[in-house]
């Protein structure tokens, strides 16, 4: 029997300017840069990991800032929306913050009994905040350098998939251990008539919503590259890989990504899925209090440090004292 996934591990997106990406996700949204590295398949490009204070599984939004890539368009076969949890009662704070930082946002909507605040990052990536009750034993650890604890983002809430033919993907989610919890009329700028929600077993990043659409899209700035689901151990990952293969898909062999081990496959609707282990973790090569402070080059890449650093755009990580001094 396949061990069910606890939920989302991370979401990886495509950005443009790396400094603009850093400024927004660290300063405006208050997430911690827990890893500064490079795309392991394209080491001339940064790979930024933004998460909670400790890089807890289920909290990291990661980016490839491909500066010369085209602007993307959200459409069928993509993760169309990525939603984060925030504590109940904090959406007024976030709306005021978005106005202060000139962040485009839309009217709040009610979805499955929760209030959702949609917005966009500087590359046009569709993102949402969902107000939820955060339990006392929640595994996430808020980072409070820019946003106070009572309003801080607390990991993923959900991803929304836009699919031309949802049924095969819905069956796949059931294979992965998610359970259908309801369907309701879609609201906002989504193109489908109905939103169907599936829930995983864990406390963070547990929901996957599916909306039917044939609206065309293209990968580029402001789109999601892939979504990763937790398979905490190697054994659980191999069990899930076997189940996915039996479902008719073609997962890769395990690939060592240094902070976790990964398996990739495109699900039936075209969305790139990843299965990721929970270890070794972002603090396996840096002290917890120094995460993101330096460029980390996994394995063979460190021998090419001088060459790689010469290709990368100079960046500065926002720091609260420096931001206050500039103001």
TrEMBL record:
<keyword id="KW-0223">Dioxygenase</keyword>
<protein>
    <submittedName>
        <fullName>Ring-cleaving dioxygenase</fullName>
    </submittedName>
</protein>
<feature type="domain" description="VOC">
    <location>
        <begin position="7"/>
        <end position="132"/>
    </location>
</feature>
<dbReference type="InterPro" id="IPR004360">
    <property type="entry name" value="Glyas_Fos-R_dOase_dom"/>
</dbReference>
<keyword id="KW-0560">Oxidoreductase</keyword>
<dbReference type="InterPro" id="IPR052537">
    <property type="entry name" value="Extradiol_RC_dioxygenase"/>
</dbReference>
<dbReference type="InterPro" id="IPR037523">
    <property type="entry name" value="VOC_core"/>
</dbReference>
<feature type="domain" description="VOC">
    <location>
        <begin position="155"/>
        <end position="278"/>
    </location>
</feature>
<dbReference type="InterPro" id="IPR029068">
    <property type="entry name" value="Glyas_Bleomycin-R_OHBP_Dase"/>
</dbReference>
<dbReference type="GO" id="GO:0051213">
    <property type="term" value="F:dioxygenase activity"/>
</dbReference>
<dbReference type="Pfam" id="PF00903">
    <property type="entry name" value="Glyoxalase"/>
</dbReference>
